[in-house]
Amino acid sequence: MFAYFGVVDLWRRLRRDRDPAVRRRARFEFAHWRVQTGDAYTLLCASSRLTAAGREFTAMMAESAAHWTGQESVPDDLALLAREAVIAHRLGWRAHYLRPSAGQIAELAEAWLSGAAGPPRRHVDTVFREVCPAPGLTEYGDRLRRAACDPGGISWSTLHPVDHARLSGETGTACRLAVDRLPREWEQPWPWIRSVSPCSDSPRRQPPRTATGWPPGRAITHRPEVVRALYAQVTEATGKAPDPVRLAARTGAPDHAGDSPPLPLTGTV
């Protein structure tokens, strides 16, 4: 992980490069990798498995991490695209690699079908699935990076309809199109990424159009594997796809969930 400290520092220094194109890319990459690496570092520092030497080393690295604070050299548009790329990465990873407990999903499905007032549990156990990387898993994040680093290089005619709307600034349309496509594409991770990532473009937006402030989006960003498995269970039981927005809102996020989805981890979430 500490190799990424060097990656973050490289992009931090390049933010002031003479070439405008280099500066733009550096600001996006700095905003993106600072969050990814910083969150991983925080988790590592809190690990009970660190040895005395490990604790000493992580403490020494704190000085480097301290240089990453502040948003002064990251314009809002790039910071928002970087934040969205972080969410897309974490959501996609969870949706593809984590499998929730079948028994606990059955409990959630039973509660949904019975019309119970709320879900019977907020915590769902997951296990890591040893599967091959999904084709296109990073596609949305790659397009966000292209939009940030080389907006003139986007081939608009070949874009996914949701991506076209999002990168055109039509976030409401992008969210609607993504949700409309879920019944046809729900088995893959990318429709879930696209269903909420456009809604996460700014913490200043008012609910319901922020992924972290909008209950359905919050559920999908924090545990997409649970929402998708529940969606499949209800569809199989009824022969009809449920409303994904209502289902996600009913599922909710974990009680300990922060504003942004955490780094992907196995175990109880």
Low-pLDDT regions: 201-210
- Main β-sheet, in a few words? 3 strands, antiparallel
Number of domains: 2
General form = globular
Give me the strand/helix succession: HHHHEHEHHHHHHHE
Number of strands: 3
Distance N terminus to C terminus?
Answer: 23 Å
Q: Strand order, main sheet: write it out.
A: 1-2-3
Estimate the helix proportion, in percent.
55-70%
The protein's oligomeric status is single chain
Structural class, by secondary structure, is: mainly alpha
The Rg value, from CA coordinates, equals: 19 Å
> What average pLDDT do the residues reach?
85
**Percent of residues in beta strands?**
under 5%
| Helix count from the secondary structure assignment | 12
Quick structural summary:
Helices cover 59% and strands 3% of the residues. The protein is built from twelve helices and three strands. A three-stranded antiparallel β-sheet has the order 1-2-3.
Q: What are its keywords?
A:
single chain; 12 helices; three-stranded antiparallel beta sheet; 3 strands; 269 residues
Explained architecture:
- The protein folds into two domains: 3-74, no CATH class; 79-268, no CATH class.
- The longest helix is centred in the N-terminal third of the chain and has 26 residues, at 20-45.
- It is mostly helical and 269 residues long.
- A three-stranded antiparallel sheet has the order 1-2-3.
- It contains twelve helices and three strands; from the N terminus they run ααααβαβαααααααβ.
- It has helices spanning 3-14, 20-45, 52-66, 76-97, 102-114, 139-149, 161-167, 171-185, 190-196, 215-222, 224-238, 244-251, and strands spanning 98-100, 125-128, 267-268.
- Helix 4 (76-97) runs antiparallel to helix 9.
- Residues 201-210 have low confidence and may be disordered.
